[in-house]
Amino acid sequence: MDDSGAEHDGGWVLVEDGLVAAVGGAEAPACDEQVELGGALVTPGLVNTHHHLCQTLTRARAQQADLFTWLRELYPVWAGIDAEAEYAAARTGLAELMLGGCTTVFDHHYVFPRGRSGLIEAEIQAAQELGARLVASRGSMDLGQSDGGLPPDELVEEIDDVLADTERLAGMVDGDMVGLAVAPCSPFSVTKELMRESAALARRLGLQLHTHLAETVEEEDYCRELFGCTPVEYLADLGWTAADVWCAHCVHLSDADVATFARTGVGVAHCPTSNLRLGAGVAPVRANGRARRRRLGIQRAERPLLRREAGVAGGARPRRAGGDDGARGAPDRHARRGRGTRARRHRLARAGEAGGRRGLAD
Ligand SMILES: [Zn+2]
What we know:
This protein is an alpha/beta fold. It folds into 2 domains: 11-44 and 331-362, no CATH class; 46-292, TIM Barrel. It contains 10 helices and 11 strands. The radius of gyration is 21 Å and the shape is globular. Zinc ion (ZN) binds next to loops.
């Protein structure tokens, strides 16, 4: 299908420098290499807006649990993570996502056991080996159980250590293929001070901000009890209601919360599979529609728009919440970006009669 909505049976896609340069259905243009994709569906790459690659290794744990129960069971397990495990988890998780058509992955990593290093480096290495575009994050937790938080004290860090390591990792941003976001974990595992300092650092470095928000009823109760307000009001008080912020889940939002996000440009990563697994509720996706289309933190002018959330990139077509991008609507031009191939190449994917089912589109 081209920009005018015309459909081409047995068509071709011309890829140039890793980007879709043209599509058509008549005579194929001259090219350097032609790949037959008979019977395959060629689509723009899907964009994952919230994931925890390290959790690939612990999926089978805590099957019958709500969020807080699930976290309490898994914190001690995650405390054992090291660079080797992170690398294995990232390779597996990224491969799964790529096989489902996902080409850009945001990974929210917030577990940094003391004395372990190289975790973010390991996932960047895995992404580079597989050819995935990765927006990594320097997540954080500094509110342990003894201070009223949920994570065990041995898994929380000092604010200065978090900020210094975040600034160090910002040096690993690599053009189109590796980005970094600043991502303190959640209201129940991070202090106000770290939330504010994280925002200041991100804005100084030109990075985007991310956190979990309004995921469960229990979180809302926690915020009301501890901060005397809702999670979104808490976010606003911290200076986080701004266009450089996107939040994961946002299941429990009032109309006023949605209006706040829409007015300030806060984005939302919709996470239905997680919400289903933990019984967290159903996010008001249509209402969020005004607020949730956001750009991801890759340092490039033409970054992909956030279209889908974690874990289930497989096959489904991204749709706008308001239903204005129906099943046969034109793909967004921002989602057509290629994999950043530097060498100039012309490549043609032809939907012919036979041939392999290798995907070519990004
Ligand atoms: Zn999450």
